[in-house]
Amino acid sequence: MDCACWPAPATPPTPTPGNSSLPADAGGKRAGPLPPCDLRASARLIIISPGMARRSRKMPTTTPAQRIYRLILFFFFLVFVGVAGYILIEGLSPLDALYMTIITISTVGFQEVRPLSASGRLFTMALVLLGVGAGAYTFGTIAEFLIAGELAGTLKRRRLMRAIERLQGHYVICGYGRVGEQVARGLADEGIPCVIVDQSSEAVQRCEECGILYVMGDATEDETLLRAGIQRARGLVAVLDNDAENVFVVLSARSLNPNLIIIARATTREAEAKLRKAGADGVLSPYQLAAHRIVRELTRPHVMIFLEKAMGNDPELYMEEIRIHPASELVGKTLGEAELRTRTGANVLSILRGADQRVIDWAPDLTLRAEDVMVVLGRPEQVEALARLAGEERFLLRSARRRTGRNPQS
User: Fold this and answer.
1) DSSP 3-state assignment of 229?
2) Where in the chain is the domain with CATH 1.10.287.70?
3) Residues of the chain with CATH 3.30.70.1450
4) How far is CA 151 from the centre of its chain?
5) Would you state the pLDDT for residue 397?
6) What is the SS3 assignment for 359?
7) SS3 (DSSP) at 73
8) Distance between CA atoms of residues 72 and 180, nearest Å
9) CB burial of residue 236 (10 Å; 0-12, 13-18, 19+)
């Protein structure tokens, strides 16, 4: 899923040596190459008519705060006009003129300083109309400023919660730091919906920019996890900065949904043991993973290249796990009878069976059972064909989302 907050790395421009046409800077050195000119864009600017250009401009808009500021200026201007008018028309002193102006604009109705002439009465009526109109407009603008923001926020939160309530089989990511952001990006690339849980306003803002569903709150509280749809979720990822908070998240999530797949991050060995006791299915340490990756890159570089292609988005090579549905035609057949390689072109590398997910060696006489997990390798269309035979609907749905590029959050 492409998003403005996940920019692709920029390619630096390549300077052209010996280009004598480049302008020199103040130090006598040649400046970098000129940026390329988009001829099509230039032609459109030349051909477009002035009328079209005027119509393409957006009308300026003002915010309620700007309108309130202008009304305050208008009020002082109205007071100045009233004082000046009473001084010039009725010959009042500045204090009496200010008194008449204030009681007229506010429509209080106190006694006049002295009887007014016909011109003074006309001026007073005009001042009353301007004052009443400005007051009504000011009241409406202030009400909009106070209510509109709260109302918009309420409607936005309701839309967000309705979208989360529609999710089923999603993943909850607790913590939207560097690790959490990469997890959300990877799930989005696979077409899997997720909900972010974080109490940082900065993290929430990044979620809004990327169009990711989120719940702002403390991930260690049950109420926050329930708002994220933890009872309907398929899995949870606890990647908060604090190991103790990750332990609390795992405990809460396991109590709310015993069937949840929980993966947590740990920074120490002690935290790793506590997270497993709390109910985490998998505990990962970024430092250990990085160290293991470096060692494998040094000792088995070609194996890592193969795994990187198979586990990435290479269009020619794809590795996936496919669970055999109880209603699949493969149940009860041996690998030799199923002829999966001939029918789909995909290779079955291994089979995992049972609650302990023990690995079973590939053999032609091995009988396939319901809920067996096949680790397969092949091109995406070959793997998808094997998933159809196995009745793996979840993989097919994810594959369709990935192929069409549809946002999993929608």
Assistant:
1) coil
2) 64-157
3) 313-404
4) 22
5) 60
6) strand
7) helix
8) 47
9) buried
CATH 3.40.50.720 domain residues, the chain: 168-290
Write down the pLDDT at residue 21. Answer: 44
Q: What is the pLDDT of residue 105?
A: 83
Compute the C-alpha angle 170/175/181, nearest 5°: 75
| 345: amino acid identity, one letter | G
DSSP label at residue 230: T
Domain 64-157: CATH class, spelled out: mainly alpha
| The two structure tokens encoding residue 109 | 């109705």
Q: Are 378 and 346 in contact (CB under 8 A)?
A: yes
Q: Percentage of the chain surpassing pLDDT 70?
A: 76
Identify the DSSP state of 326: T
Residue 223 has pLDDT above 90, yes or no: yes
Angle between helices 243-256 and 269-278 (to 10 degrees): 10
Beta-sheet strands, E only, within 61-193: 171-174
pTM exceeds cut of 0.70: no
Strands 235-238 and 171-174: parallel
Q: List the alpha helices (DSSP H) in 191-320.
A: 201-210, 222-227, 243-256, 269-278, 286-299, 301-311
Quote the DSSP letter at residue 214. Answer: E
| CB-count exposure of residue 384 (10 Å: 0-12, 13-18, 19+) | buried
With CA atoms as reference, report the closest residue to 122 among 89, 91, 147.
Answer: 89
Positive or negative torsion for Cα 396, 402, 405, 407: positive
**DSSP code for 24:** B
Is 3.30.70.1450 the CATH classification of the domain at 313-404? Answer: yes
Average the pLDDT over 273-278 and give the result: 92
Rounded Cα–Cα distance for residues 3 and 210 (Å):
6
Q: Structurally, what CATH architecture does the domain formed by 168-290 represent?
A: 3-Layer(aba) Sandwich (3.40)
